[in-house]
């Protein structure tokens, strides 16, 4: 699980005192719209209340079968 502050520092080389944490929230929403079948009910990019965000990749069996993600995109790493 990564906090918004950790993501700001790692991705944008910034900090919450300089850039708003809402930046992360906005980008998470955009990512979900691209990778989730139902962005309002995420299955891959999940919110951990009070902590941050977690990525739950699909099971390996699903990736081994060459399946695409529900949104029709190639699997992560594919």
Describe what this molecule looks like in 3D.
- There is one protein chain.
- With 78 residues, this protein is α+β, with helices and mostly antiparallel strands.
- 36% of the residues lie in helices and 10% in strands.
- It is built from three helices and two strands; from the N terminus they run ααββα.
- It has helices at 4-12, 22-35, 60-64, and strands at 45-48, 52-55.
- The protein has a two-stranded antiparallel sheet.
- A hairpin with a 3-residue loop joins strand 1 (45-48) and strand 2 (52-55).
- The longest helix is centred in the middle third of the chain and has 14 residues, at 22-35.
- The model has no long low-confidence stretch (mean pLDDT 83).
Question: Could you give the topology of this structure?
Answer:
Elements: H1 4-12, H2 22-35, E1 45-48, E2 52-55, H3 60-64
Antiparallel strand pairs: 1-2
Quick synopsis:
By secondary structure, the chain is an alpha+beta fold.
């Amino acid at each position: 699980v990564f906090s918004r502050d950790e993501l700001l520092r790692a991705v944008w080389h910034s900090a919450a005192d300089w850039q708003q944490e809402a930046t992360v929230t906005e980008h998470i929403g955009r990512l979900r719209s691209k990778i989730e079948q139902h962005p309002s009910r995420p299955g891959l990019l999940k919110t951990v209340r009070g902590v941050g965000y977690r990525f739950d990749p699909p099971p390996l069996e699903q990736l081994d079968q060459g399946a695409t993600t529900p949104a029709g995109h190639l699997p992560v790493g594919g």
